[in-house]
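User: Sequence in, structure out. Go.
Assistant: Echoing your sequence, followed by the structure tokens.
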Amino acid sequence: MGQLVYSAITSLDGYIEDREGGFTWGMPDDDVHSFINNLERSIGTYLYGRKLYEVMKSWEPLFGQPDLIRVERDFAAIWHMSEKVVFSRTLEEVSTARTRIERTFDPEAIRAMKASAEDDLSVGGAELAGTAFKAGLVDQIHLFISPILIGGGKPALPDAAATRLELLDQHGFGNGIVHLHYRVKN
């Protein structure tokens, strides 16, 4: 049985995007990227909202490119080899391997995916993650907190019912980013 994991790079004040939709302030350095790659190796399926899929599909043409630095080559391979499900009512087609579109996010279908999965699943995109949180589907949270205050934008964590968490791990990086890993207590 797989677990549903939510991961996000966030500002210290809790945003994944600034007011203009930018997120370059949160780009990981090689140490953080390598750490993220190691976490992502356990993911067999990515569940994305349309907007995050549009950002992430830029990794597809990087698969197999020998001139990339190692952390980028590794992530491109991890991402390419994983299944991807894009939840969108407007996206007409996908342009990446192992990708399909679903028009609605059905919590029971996600529970069935988790139950039959050999690997973990990842939910990405703030809105989609919020829906998964509200349905009680998220099992783990990985937050990478960047040492910056951006003052507003898209929240990393959704408005949801009170949820108890258990801290499983914490790790600091030389660039000031802190990783927090929680288990959702149901």
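User: And one key feature?
Assistant: The radius of gyration is 16 Å.
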